[in-house]
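Cross-check.
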Amino acid sequence: MRLNTKSILNRRPQTPADPGEIRRVERWLATARVFLAISAFAAIYMDPSQLGHAPVAYALLGLYLIHGVLVMTLLRRRRQSTAAFRIFIHSADIVWPAFISIFAEGRSPFFLFFFFVLAAAAYRWGLWGTLSTATAEVALLWIESFVLVRLSTYQRPAHLLRGLQVNVPEFEPKRLFMLSIYLLVMGLLLGYLAEQQKRLRAEKAVVTGMLAKVRVEAGLTGTLQQICREIVARYSAGRLLMVSQEIHSRRTFLGELRDAGNSEFIWLNSGPREAKSYLEDFPGEVCYAAHEKKRLSLMALDQEGNPVASPPTESLAHLRERQSFESLISISFVFAGEWRGRLFVFDPSWQGDRHEELRFLLDLFRQVGPAVYNVYLLHRLRRRAGAAERTRVARELHDGAVQSLIAVEMQVDVLRRQAESSPNVVSNELGRIQGLLREEVLKLRELMQQMKSIDIDSRRFLNVVRDAVERFQRETGISARFITDVQNLEMPDKVCRELLRIVQEGLVNVRKHSKARHALVRLSSTPREWNLTVEDDGQGFPFSGRLRQDELDQIGKGPTIIKERVRLIAGALTVESNPGQGTRLEIKVPRDGEGSDEL
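Predicted model, tokenized:
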């Protein structure tokens, strides 16, 4: 196996990487330092016996408060907090409690000074920094104990210590021993908790980074490529292999990424043999295997993250016959009972606790996997929607233009035969055929218009609608007008798109079904809503009266496509029909409405 470098968890920084976050942490610690000094003054005021009556003790506590205020002021003025500055402040925090405790009667409340230093070290550096701080505090206390106890054995130094009201009995070894144990145990616990917190933050950062690679616009292959590159880069692996199988059809797919640079994720030829070689009888949900000293060492975890006892190695031995590797990470995955698969990371660099790394990889895939599966579902949905749209277009062409053109071809053949004997009949028939062709050209243009994607906003909306109405008049001969009193339109893009589609569909219905001679499109607005009206003087719907959208749904009447588009923008549709006199469609769209995200 290659030389170990950094794994996912061991790449995390030991201090917050963001300078802004470092400043926030240091400011918080500075505020806590000042608050601690003020609290100590309050405790002494309520019970002066805790510090005795030595002026030196009060002076030291006052200097500690001034020290805290100065640090807080410096942090507010400095743009960044350097590592040397933090170490200097932390060293001073270690020294102050040791000196102040010389004059304390008992350990409360001044024991909190020691706790503050340990908490600061835990937040800054984690386990080893906290243990080092606790060790330094204990060493400093024992040095003070040695010096004070030795000085108390001499007459003049002892008289000076009594004059300063130094509490020498508190520094006797039997008392100091328990305090040392407290500090070391507290440092160990705080350091362990800080290390766990840093590990969780590192894991969260890795998961967030992986989820950021899941992008719908990149597609399924692009998303897999980004995620696989991230894994290969983090483990400095030689290559990566992904095998997946659709459970119902048993189709197997094999993808490979050679390196984390510019290498592309490529799909390889695969078959049933690959499924058996790569997916069957592998130990655990996640495992790590390494070929060491002509034997295969293996660690595997089950779904709960627990070690698998005596995991089998036959499948890995067979895999090594097909894929050359010295070490290997294998992670299995299952998506919604539809897909199963396994990811192989060959020759990874490894550092840190293997059990924790494997457990983290198991959690990582449980969180990233559903996001990748959602990209697959959306990709499949788009593919099916495209197929459905192509089917609809083919059906429209077959039932409309193709059938009409076949009929025209047959009629032209008949006319060709009648041309010599009945010229008048030929002229009339040619006029009818011309009208039929004109009708089919309009249908094809409408179909093409429906298939076009619309890029429109409120600034272009009025002009686009006006052009659509004018084009309708030119192509059909039906008199059509667009009227609006809106000057400055402010409308969401989604509403613009749907209202334009409604206008186009309404005009198509006028041409196809109404036999109208005049059509009118009107747009108006109020402070609460936009109002769109499409009306004609044709034959109307097969009902009489004014019906809302829910009433139209109950009787199964009304323009279906327009009703669906009105729902998408949370609008209200009303249809007024007078058979033989015309139809009026009224659409009201609230300004604060929230349309559906469908389609």
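Residues 1-16, 594-599 have pLDDT under 50 and may be disordered. Residues 36 and 194 are 21 Å apart (CA to CA). Passed to J.P. for a second look.
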